[in-house]
């Protein structure tokens, strides 16, 4: 194995990796696509000499394993592979394209890699101290619920005679300095853009001193490059510039549904397959297959009786299976650990970090009482459609919490938390997501062509397609009861009215800015003290 270059040699960090984390590292199943990714990473991040006239595709490949050439970014090698691929594309497209013309020195890339590795290890360390249950199921849904409530009030107020615009009413309810003043003319648009740029720079400048190594804080060149990459490319252009567009949100929602939705077999295929199986087994001849359809025509009363009998049997078996699984899980929940604020009891965390998080509640909110249920109810307009169901669920929620059946650290509460961590918060889900993001933003490891904003007609079609995907993914019985109709056109029109809550890019930007600040405050509690002071 080739010895790593001094620029890429692993350096000790104050965020050391635990031995048990390395042992639990998932085995990496290397594919042809992963091999191509590794070669691309070596050409960009591991080359020893930068030739201005030499392209990354023609540069000689560096020998050795990737783990020995580059420092670890996280405790999982599959996540490191995707992160290094994204970093290689960013450096190749936005840094080396102009830096190699100035100097052939390749140590600069190694220093950037070391800085990023230190930042990601520090970020992983802080992420382990965050109560992900409360953040993902309570605080972020509560933020979305407050945003939707303000948008609903603003939309209803704009329809009143002599009422203000939707953005003006929203900013009155939920103002933010980064998005003020309202962009109504050229002067206000320029002023708002300058405030947005200043906020992005301050946002990144408050985070980098907490992540960068102390010896790199005095290097102005590296500080400027890293700050510009995060504030200019990631925060301002990608997140606040593209992610707030309504057509992008609708298109991403539709693609996610189509990617996760299994394709059911068609009715003709299922009937033909059942008949072919009978014919193959010799139970149904070809002549009898012709008379099969006519023999199924029975009286309406007989068909209703048979269907009701089978439905009752299915519900009985389903209820018994659900009760059995629930009781077994409930008995196993007694061995699960208690939920607590991790940042309050984390070992090795700094005094300033614990002091900054002292304002948080020491006892987390119970799972059944988190605000994600209110957010789902507002998105589905359940209070307007089925007020009786909303009242019954609210009463059951109140009684289950006050009686302690579903209270904090009860058996049901710990069981729900364990299942959420097992199903939704697994680290193995992150590499496919990172790979999908890299393939979408950088197809072929190059910056993809800029997506032209769709026209008004195309935007309406994208929203209609998103509504169609949401309606199709719902079970037939559930959507019939929910929409109180069997007309799919009416269902899609109803879903489109809900999607109209995200039709304003300026309001979506307010939501994204608030979510970013919440994430930063939870990951870096020191910034909350700075903001208060």
From TrEMBL:
- Which positions are tagged coiled coil? none
Give the principal location in a single coarse category. Answer: cytoplasm
Region Disordered: start-end pairs: 1-30
Bias category Basic residues: which stretches? 1-12
Q: Which GO terms describe its cellular component?
A: early endosome; late endosome
Kindly indicate whether the keyword Cytoplasm belongs to this entry.
yes
Location in the cell = Cytoplasm
Ranges for domain PXA come to 76-257
Q: Write down the PANTHER family for this protein, in alphabetical order.
A: PX SERINE/THREONINE KINASE PXK, SORTING NEXIN-16
* Protein name (database record): PXA domain-containing protein
**Organism of origin:** Friedmanniomyces endolithicus
Lineage of source species = Eukaryota, Fungi, Dikarya, Ascomycota, Pezizomycotina
